[in-house]
Amino acid sequence: MIFVPVILMLALLVFTAWLIFPAFMSTVASALHAVLPLSLPAEGIAAALMATIATLVIACPCALGLATPTALMVGSGIGANKGILIRSGEALQRMKDVDTMLLDKTGTLTHGKPELIKTEAYVGDEASLLSIAYAMESFSEHPLALAIKNAAQARKLSLMEVENFSANPGRGISAEIKGKRYYLGSRNWMADIGIRDVADPDPELAYAGSIYLAAEGKVLACFYVADTIRDEAQGMVQTLLQKGIKPIMMSGDNLHTAQAIAAKCGIEEVWANVLPADKAGKVKELQSSGRVVAMIGDGINDAPALKQADIGIAMGMGTDIAIEAADITILRGDLRLIPLAHKLSVQTFAKIRQNLFWAFFYNLIAIPLAAFGVLHPVIAEIAMALSSVTVVSNANLLRHKF
Fold first, then answer.
1. pLDDT tens-digit profile of 101-119?
2. Residues 203 and 303 in one domain
3. Could you tell me which of 135, 167, 209, 380 has the fewest CB atoms within 10 Å of its CB?
């Protein structure tokens, strides 16, 4: 909107100057010719037309127009080849500004496939209590529920009939089995429903999540469920720290469990006991303090936070809703691709700046030469084409960095 009108006005001024001040323009052209072995302009109206046409041709904004989209296209292509699906050029450019990464625990830092590693029975036998938990969790698709179901099925326990099932997201579930109301959930939820005599979890299993089964005001059992940490999680965190990006782990687990897993990953700051509905609010808190936040998650509950974040990053093995809400998707679920996405953004933006510099530098040198008639229109056309080729070639050099 600005460049084209300015060039048109400049071309008109060049034409007018050659008609009104032909001696001055010819003198300047001769001086330039003494330095640069280029052709001298004609005289009179022919000189004015030649200089005007050369100015219009040389100022064609092809190189400027190609500078940004070409680099973004190459960067997005490199990302796709590496397993990083970038939804838009804006996301690719914005990623370089991220200074805080909020990481969901289950399914992101961990494989999202926890296993039941221990059952503590306080009242009754272990098999009966696991059978009750199995019946209740049969209505849930949460990874922790899946661990209990898998353990019960491995022991070939029967599935009891459940009535009046109720779920409290992020806290627990309740249901009636054989006329008795059972509650299955976190330690905090036990306190919320009025159960006070909750035993402390085994300190040796601090890395595992503890799920309590209660009925009639007392705790019946505790199920310890552990999720394995991804092999590349610690290396990814260290790379982020080296880049000056602060990682924060966010989890619905209790503080001890969350801290144990975060410590294994090398993450110092942990937000525990975070309900699914509060995740987007946590992102807003960081943004309100001036942080540029990237949220990494994989589940349906992560979708609002992914949408709220400056950059939402979904794990490719996650839910369709999370992927749809994200700006970037890690197709293979490899955490090492997250720092790579940041590097790709930095390098792509560097190429954009280089392209814009060369495009402006080219116009800064070539337009005065064309205005004083030293550049023949044919030479100007060749130079204009070469500038576009230079920009495209420079953008493709980005491939050698990955």
1. 999 988 888 887 788 989 9
2. no
3. 167
241 and 389 share one domain: no
pLDDT tens sequence across 257-277: 788 889 889 999 999 888 888
Q: Residue written as tokens 């996301």?
A: 91
Helices (H), 174-311: 187-192, 233-242, 255-265, 279-288, 303-308
Question: Which of 226, 252, 272 corresponds to the end of one domain?
Answer: 226
Question: Which member of 104, 227, 253, 302 is catalytic?
Answer: 104
**Assigned token pair, 9:** 């006005």
Question: Active-site residue 104, yes or no?
Answer: yes
Same domain, 329 and 238: yes
Task: Indicate whether 313 and 211 sit together in one domain.
Answer: no
The tokens for 49 are: 């037309």
Paired residues of 195 in beta bridges: none
Burial of 128 (0-12, 13-18, 19+ CB in 10 A): middle
Q: How far is 373 from 151, CA to CA, in rounded Å?
A: 85
- pTM of the model as a whole: 0.70
